[in-house]
């Protein structure tokens, strides 16, 4: 066990964990942010995708010890419930999710893709997103939503606030 | 209720309590809608200020407070099919509620209160559409009466809209909340007096409604089983016996206990054989402060196993044995005419053997459950499809009354039938009881793939005979796969009537001689049900053979299917099944007939929409398949392009679907889009193989699923518009896609597919 400082979504957490602990479990079990999901434990499915200094990584296969001072961003850190990120907004407009379990990881990958390629082609999207499995099969809508988010981001307009969801 | 008594002949004798039909019990409860049984109409509660407030709750599915808050109960499990949205919206539409302001609350597992909650078999909408309409209409009538009384006008002059009662002639309006106190004093109207809305006045049913959990999902706030939390909660990861039926001989936990954070090591006794559809496997659990410590501890456990009689099992050998088996005569399960005579008189005989592997559910959220067992009570939070079945078996296992067991249902990160089984919930409860700690059992991906209730491998042989006029004269379908029932009763070695009714004995085409035969295939793994169950292999064999029949007859495959379906009429099968029963998905064939006209209509529609018959470049092709399952009619056309000899690209998929009344068109579309991808995984990528009784695939590198680059690109869903009784859409998209794809590959390359997953390299 070792005391480590992790900066997650702009907030510094001191965690006392095995340095080999995958970042995923530090985020979920120790820090208590549950939006990042466990799917495979060996970087095969992308459900655990987070950003380190803006670069997507599979947190299930990234030991806490390699993070050091890099800034961690999770699904909870890309927007707020009232002011969603353009990618999240596009996901709502295209009604992407089915069960929703993989979507945090899909969204984190899509955010990174659009930073790298603001205007991706279908092929760019397919190649970049191939590390993220969706067992429900929402791929077609993910592709549409990434194109939509690309448009929203380039309009440079503030993303509109989503109306309060039903049931809340 | 996946295999209720009426659905699977074996079940009554062989299944545990949880899988017995709970449907009929529900229908008794359903009497509250039809028999005028008044439930607690008037409830009082207090608001934050401590003031007594009135609540209108004419049935268990909705409450309206005098403050105007409308709460709708979602009592079925949400696994991506959208049921937490689609059933509540039916209540809201009938009631005239303002959807943007209703609150959806997930019911806990309580069959007596809510009726059937076993979310399986594509029957949520089929079973609950009418009860939900009646629930909404009952509350509406009470509110209308209360308003009419106050205004001293006739009820017929009043209407509801946006959570208000409107006096249509004067335009006067009252909020629902203002009427609650009066409405809850009125007697609940008898069913005969409940007038349901004219479908023409629906505002939501038949349209596209976004799911209620959309915002929570995209912002990472949605709570799945893995996210369940209780104060003081510990995590358990279990090393289970790698062979079904084996058990722990001895174990050494020294190294595991030395891992920082590991708290306890507890063995779990398994049932041996039969493995059952409910009980945990034999294993050793490591309980730790966090998941990582539990996984590390588990890796360091040293366990000696008694592997049991399945330790020599090999799936490759099983397929070889079953291939020989289906070449012989089997047990006749449906017979029409004289197939032997048809074959003797045939000018052409087409005969092929079809092989499909074991499949795992591979829900992206592996099974997980949190349990607290304390003071003679048990509370569980889990991603379960079958909360009430789990509740019964938890009570029985823990030796406490059912009413001391509370099941909270989280969102399910995929389910596909896997999460119908309560084994992971029992593991959590047993460990919580033994350790005295709140325990969350977390399955890893390896656990999930090694210890699933697998979709069984299958070997089938189909023989089709044509006479001199190219008429299809005979159809002989041989079937061998381990039955789901064998998981409960090892003496079962042949498919049940229920399994055969999923695309084999309900062969709908007009052929003078039909003989369907089954063969012995003992089970060596835990066999379960996977989205659309035996429809997967049976539709694969039937619909690809039909494509060959069309070719041999010199008839276009679509025209061939329309011709062989014959005159518009309702089909029956049971008279040709000897003592066998045709299950019809648990419904009577009178209530839900097999309507040839509806099948022909979806075929004609999909052919038109997909441009069937159009010229495609060399290396591309269209393939067709039609398959009714779960009482929903589906026809599918897949367009394929084969590049570089073996790379399969799927630019377009067209589906036409007749599921009766469409409730939420967006979720119908999304289930078909996803169903095509699900089927594409099993057609192109996935196989579980077994050696020495142990599954050989460990993770997604071995058990592969479709990923975005190879996924079907555009899936077009054409929904037939009618007002027939609604039927389910969760499973019906899966069966026809794979044979349509195989037929498209043939059109593109001239290569026929007889083995799944498809391998064009071989």
From TrEMBL, chain A:
The keyword Metal-binding applies. PROSITE patterns: 2FE2S_FER_1, 2FE2S_FER_2. Pfam families: Fer2, Fer2_2. Residues 2-78 form the 2Fe-2S ferredoxin-type domain. One of its GO terms (molecular function) is 2 iron, 2 sulfur cluster binding. Keywords: 2Fe-2S, Iron, Iron-sulfur, Metal-binding, Oxidoreductase. PANTHER family: BLR6218 PROTEIN, OXIDOREDUCTASE WITH IRON-SULFUR SUBUNIT. This is Isoquinoline 1-oxidoreductase, alpha subunit. It comes from Siphonobacter aquaeclarae.
From TrEMBL, chain B:
It comes from the Bacteria. Residues 219-309 form the Aldehyde oxidase/xanthine dehydrogenase a/b hammerhead domain. SMART domains: Ald_Xan_dh_C (SM01008). Coiled coil: none annotated. SUPFAM superfamilies: Molybdenum cofactor-binding domain. One of its GO terms (molecular function) is oxidoreductase activity. It holds the Pfam family MoCoBD_1. InterPro entries: Ald_Oxase/Xan_DH_a/b (IPR000674), AldOxase/xan_DH_MoCoBD1 (IPR008274), AldOxase/xan_DH_MoCoBD2 (IPR046867), AldOxase/xan_DH_Mopterin-bd_sf (IPR037165), N-heterocyclic_Hydroxylase (IPR052516), OxRdtase_Mopterin-bd_su_IorB (IPR012368). This is Isoquinoline 1-oxidoreductase, beta subunit. It comes from Siphonobacter aquaeclarae.
């Amino acid at each position: 066990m070792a005391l480590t400082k992790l900066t997650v979504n702009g907030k510094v957490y001191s965690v006392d964990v095995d340095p080999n602990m995958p970042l995923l479990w530090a985020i979920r079990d120790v820090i208590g942010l549950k939006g990042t999901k466990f799917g495979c434990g060996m970087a095969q499915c992308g459900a655990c995708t987070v950003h380190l200094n803006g670069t997507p990584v599979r947190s299930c296969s990234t030991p806490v010890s390699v993070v050091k001072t890099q800034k961690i961003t999770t699904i909870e850190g890309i927007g707020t419930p009232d002011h969603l990120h353009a990618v999240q907004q596009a996901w709502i407009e295209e009604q992407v999710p089915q069960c929703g379990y993989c979507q945090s990881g899909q969204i984190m990958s899509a955010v990174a893709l659009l930073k790298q390629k603001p205007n991706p082609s279908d092929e760019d999207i397919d190649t970049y997103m191939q590390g993220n499995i969706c067992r429900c099969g929402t791929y077609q809508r993910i592709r549409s939503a990434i194109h939509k988010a690309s448009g929203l981001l380039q309009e440079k307009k503030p993303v509109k606030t989503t109306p309060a969801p039903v049931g809340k | 209720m996946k295999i209720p008594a009426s659905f699977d002949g074996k079940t009554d004798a062989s299944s545990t309590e949880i899988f017995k039909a709970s449907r009929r019990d529900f229908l008794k409860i359903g009497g509250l809608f039809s028999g005028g049984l008044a439930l607690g109409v008037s409830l009082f509660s207090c608001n934050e200020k401590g003031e007594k407030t009135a609540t209108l709750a004419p049935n268990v599915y909705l409450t309206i407070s005098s403050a105007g808050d409308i709460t709708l109960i979602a009592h079925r499990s949400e696994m991506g099919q959208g049921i937490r949205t689609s059933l509540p919206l039916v209540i809201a539409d009938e009631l005239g509620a303002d959807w943007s302001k209703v609150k959806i609350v997930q019911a806990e597992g309580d069959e007596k209160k809510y009726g059937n909650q076993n979310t399986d078999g594509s029957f949520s909408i089929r079973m609950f559409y009418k009860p939900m309409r009646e629930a909404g209409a009952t509350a509406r009538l009470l509110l209308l009466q209360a308003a009419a009384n106050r205004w001293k006008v006739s009820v017929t002059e009043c209407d509801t809209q946006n959570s208000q009662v409107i006096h249509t002639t004067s335009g006067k309006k009252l909020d629902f909340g203002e009427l609650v106190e009066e409405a809850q004093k009125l007697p609940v109207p008898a069913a005969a007096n409940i007038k349901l809305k004219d479908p023409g006045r629906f505002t939501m049913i038949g349209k596209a409604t976004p799911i209620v959990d959309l915002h929570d999902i995209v912002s990472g706030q949605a709570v799945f089983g893995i996210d369940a939390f209780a104060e003081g909660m510990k995590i358990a990861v279990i090393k289970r016996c790698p062979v079904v039926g084996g058990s722990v001989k001895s174990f050494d936990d020294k190294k595991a206990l030395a891992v920082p954070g590991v708290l306890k090591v507890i063995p779990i006794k398994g049932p041996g054989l039969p493995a059952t559809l409910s009980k945990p496997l034999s294993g050793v659990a490591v309980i730790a402060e966090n998941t990582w410590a539990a996984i590390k501890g588990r890796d360091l456990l040293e366990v000696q196993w008694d592997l049991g009689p399945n330790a020599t099992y090999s799936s490759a050998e099983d397929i070889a044995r079953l291939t020989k088996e289906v070449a012989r005569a089997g047990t006749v399960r449906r017979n029409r005419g004289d197939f032997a005579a048809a074959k003797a008189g045939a000018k052409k005989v087409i005969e092929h053997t079809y092989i499909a592997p074991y499949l795992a559910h591979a829900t992206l959220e592996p099974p997980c459950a949190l349990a607290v067992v304390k003071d003679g009570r048990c509370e569980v939070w889990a991603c379960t499809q079958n909360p009430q079945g789990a509740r019964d078996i938890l009570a029985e296992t823990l030796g406490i009354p059912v009413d001391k067991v509370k099941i909270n249902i989280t969102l399910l990160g995929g389910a596909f039938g896997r999460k119908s089984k309560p084994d992971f919930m029992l593991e959590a409860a047993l460990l919580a009881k033994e350790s005295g700690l709140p325990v969350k059992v977390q399955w890893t991906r390896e656990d999930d793939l090694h210890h699933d209730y697998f979709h069984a491998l299958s070997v089938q042989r189909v023989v089709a005979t044509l006479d001199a006029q190219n008429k299809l004269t005979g159809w002989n379908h041989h079937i061998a796969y381990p039955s789901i029932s064998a998981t409960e009763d090892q003496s079962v070695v042949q498919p049940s009537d229920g399994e055969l009714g999923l695309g084999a004995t309900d062969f709908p085409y007009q052929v003078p001689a039909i003989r369907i035969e089954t063969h012995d295939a003992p089970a060596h793994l835990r066999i379960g049900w996977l989205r659309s169950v035996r429809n997967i292999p049976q539709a694969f064999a039937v619909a690809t053979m039909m494509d060959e029949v069309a070719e041999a007859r010199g008839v276009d495959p679509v025209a061939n299917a329309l011709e062989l379906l014959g005159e518009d009429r309702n089909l029956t099968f049971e008279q040709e099944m000897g003592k066998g029963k045709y299950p019809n998905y648990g419904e009577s064939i009178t209530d839900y007939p097999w309507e040839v006209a509806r099948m022909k209509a979806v075929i004609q529609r999909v052919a038109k929409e997909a441009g069937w018959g159009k010229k495609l470049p060399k290396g591309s092709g269209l393939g067709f398949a039609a398959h009714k399952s779960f009482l929903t009619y589906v026809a599918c056309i897949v367009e394929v392009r084969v590049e570089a000899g073996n790379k399969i690209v799927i630019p377009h998929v067209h589906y036409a679907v007749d599921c009766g009344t469409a409730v939420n068109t967006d979720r119908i579309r999304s289930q078909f889009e996803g169903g095509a991808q699900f089927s594409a995984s099993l057609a192109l990528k996935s196989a579980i193989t077994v050696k020495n009784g142990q599954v050989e695939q460990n993770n997604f590198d071995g058990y592969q699923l479709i990923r975005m680059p190879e996924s079907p690109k555009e899936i077009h869903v054409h929904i037939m518009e009618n007002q027939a009784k609604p039927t389910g859409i969760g499973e019906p998209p899966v069966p026809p896609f794979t044979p349509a794809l195989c037929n498209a590959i043939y059109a593109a390359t001239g290569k026929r597919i007889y083995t799944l997953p498809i391998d064009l390299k071989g």
